[in-house]
Amino acid sequence: MSVPMLDVVGLGHTYGSVDAVSDVSFAVEPGELVCIVGPSGCGKSTLLRCIAGLLPPSRGTVSLHGDRVSGVPSDLAVVFQDYSRSLLPWRTVFGNVEFPLRDRGLSTVERRSRVEEALSWVGLSGAASKHPHELSGGMQQRVSIARALAYRPALMLMDEPFASVDAQTRADLEDLVLQVRASAGMTVLLVTHDIDESVYLADRVLVLSPSPATVVETLKVDLPSPRDQIATRGSDAFVRLRTEIARLIRR
Length: 251
Hints:
By secondary structure, the chain is of the alpha/beta class. It has a domain at 1-75 and 158-164 and 186-251: Rossmann fold (3-Layer(aba) Sandwich), CATH 3.40.50.300. It contains eight helices and ten strands. It has helices spanning 44-52, 83-86, 93-98, 108-121, 137-151, 167-184, 195-201, 236-250, and strands at residues 6-15, 18-28, 33-37, 59-64, 67-68, 76-79, 155-159, 187-191, 204-208, 213-220. It has a ten-stranded mixed sheet, with helices on both faces. The longest helix is centred in the C-terminal third of the chain and has 18 residues, at 167-184. The relative contact order is 0.18.
């Protein structure tokens, strides 16, 4: 039997006497893009931090490649919502993307190659020498994604990565994730509050209950690829899935 890329079993987290996450179990297979949606305040970000090893769960286990997670795994990368706080303002775009590679034991030539490839993937090859304050919000988030891609993680976690950008930039970044995921064979777990976004991006959508979170439904998204912001979102299958997820969340 093959081992899933990510295996979450009975995960729960309590802040003091308050349960934020109750009992969450699911698995993510290599190469999948799985989205997690749920009501506001249900514990989505807490769940993701536990999976990333940034927050120890109060109960349950998280395993990556079959190995139990205790601390941040070396082959995992996280893209946060607040790109302005995740980038180093005194470093250039190139320097920000290269920074986490310095502890990977890579030569200067290999680091440069990875950075240039990642910047090419996100359409920022011409911005390598700029600093974050010279970029728009959408471009800054592209730098954050490029940094994660250059690290070449087995699993990329994304926590509401497009919530702070305008609608057009959000659509562009959604398509970017699908493109680089296909190019790099990336496994992605993405948390979002946007139901339409989850259906557009995912192979599967996990729907969480109100706090304390548990998984109430797992829906397979059987939409044709490549996906298109107009044709895909206008299809009957897309509308049916969106409606079903909305019903589950509001139930």
